[in-house]
Amino acid sequence: MAATQKDPVLVVVQLSGGNDYLNTVIPYNNGLYRDNRKAVSIGDNQIVHLDNMYGFPSYLAPMKQFWDEGKLAIMHGVGYLDSPRSHFRSMDIWHTCEADKVGTEGWLGRVVREFDPKKENVVTAVSFGPCLFRALSVPGVPVACVAGPLETYGFLPGIQDKAQRLAMLERFARMYTPIPGSGVMEYLGTTGLDSLKGADILKVAPSRYRSEAKYPNTSIGRKLKGIAQVHFADLGTRVFYCDHGSFDTHAGQNPIHATLWSDLNKGLEVFMADLREHDRSENVIVLIFSEFGRRVRDNGSGTDHGAAGVTFVLGEKVKGGHYGDMPSLDASKLVQGDLNPNMDFRGIYSTILDRWMHLDPVPVVNGKYEQPGFLN
Length: 376
Prior knowledge:
Blueprint: E1 9-16, H1 31-36, E2 47-49, E3 55-57, H2 61-68, E4 72-79, H3 87-96, H4 107-115, E5 125-128, E6 144-146, H5 162-176, H6 184-202, H7 205-208, H8 219-232, E7 239-245, H9 253-277, E8 284-290, E9 309-315, E10 321-323, E11 343-344, H10 345-356, H11 362-365
Parallel strand pairs: 1-7, 1-8, 4-10, 4-11, 5-6, 5-7
Antiparallel strand pairs: 2-3, 4-9, 8-9
Helix pairs in contact: 5-6, 8-9
C-alpha cells in the first residue's frame, strides 16, 4: 500500500524504566501526596498548575504549552491487572498486548503488516534506538532500525569508493540470501536483505531535510531530529519509534527525573515547532508511555517499581484534557502499596488504531477495550 504525505503517522516515545506518575502529573492538593513523599515530593513553588487538582513540575513547562493549546491528552491510571512489576515482563506486555502469556508478535509490527502486506516499502516503520523494539517485531515484517545519526547510518558507510562499496554490498546480499525452508536462517536472510534496502532508502533523508530548527544535542533530541528528517523526506513511513531513559529511579530520583523530562520536553518543543513550521504536523500524533508507574511511598531517596502510570498523547488532532481519574492514594485502595490501574493500556492503543490509523483494533490488541475519546 503506497503511503502519501498526509497519511496518519504515529510517533511512539517509550520512557524505559518506569516513569514516576505522581511526580509527573502531581495531585498537589492531595495531602496524601506529601505524606507519602517526604524525600521526593515536588515543592509548591516548583509546580506549574494545569487546573485546581493537577500540576506539572516546572521542568515540564513545554508540555504545559501543549496543554494550554488543547493538544495534550493525559491518560490517568494506565496499566493492566496483576502487574508483575518487572521491567522485562511489563514492557513485553505493553509491546505484545499479551498479559496472560508470552506474545510472539509486536502490536506495531502487526500494524505495519496491515499497511504493507506485500513489503513494498521496507521503511514503513523506522525505529531509533540501540535495538529493534519488541513492539515492532513480527517475523517477515521489515523495520529499519537506526542506532545513530542518519548521516552515518547504513552498511559500511566508511567505504567511499563506489566500486569497492558495491562489491562489499553484493557479498552481503549473497550472504543474506535466504535458503528456502531453513527456518531461522531464512528469517535472518530476509531481515538482512530488507535492512540493506532500508539503509539505501533512509540515507537520502538528511539531504532532503531543510530546516533551521535547533534540536538539543541530547540522545532524545537527536532521535527526534532523525524522525523529523525521515518524515520530511516523504518516504512513506507511518510508524516511528524511539526510547528515552532510564527512568528506574530507585535512588537520587529528583535530579534524574528532572533531567530526563527536561531533555524530552526541550526535544518535543523543537520537534513540534519544526513540524508546524513546515506544515508537517497535522498528520502526526505522539504517544508517550512507560511500562509502569512507581510506588506511592518513597524509599528515602527514590521510588520503587509500581503499577498504574500515566500515558500522554500529543498532536494537532488530539482532544486535550484529562481522561480517566487518578487512582486513589488512600492506603486502603492501594495494591501492594501501589496505585491501582483503572485504564487498560490496550484501550489507548485501540483508540489510536481505530480513530487515527483506521484499522480494526481487535486483532492487533487481542480483544475489545474501552476507548478513551482523545481523538476526533
